[in-house]
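Cross-check.
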Amino acid sequence: MIVVAIIAILAAIAIPNFMSFVIKTKRSEAKYNLSAIYTAELSYFGEANAFSNSFQTIRWRPEGTIYYYTFSVGTEIYGKGDANPGVVPGATNLSFTAYGWGSIDTDATSDVWYINDRKEIVNETDDLNT
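Predicted model, tokenized:
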């Protein structure tokens, strides 16, 4: 009986820590890919003196498989927090914003991140605190 109690206490401590680790891993996918998009946009800007709305134009594609997030380049996101928000295209010659969104838990709210031409990475909608 004591052994079962000890295992239950250890499980009560370990499971929340494990879930926190899983969430950090999912969010790192968004930050990593948004940083890569920023680098690709900056490289393209160096060649063309303008930013682009097209991943094909800036020659960016994710390395490996994307599991949790969807990425797009645009100036504004609508339906923030929805399961499938949309992005209004609109990179200009002098600015861009790239968005990544996805559900990192089981609810209908999306975790929304963006990076802009000033390299500001922002968690616009926090899926865990909504």
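The chain has one domain: 29-129. The chain has a mean pLDDT of 81. Passed to J.P. for a second look.
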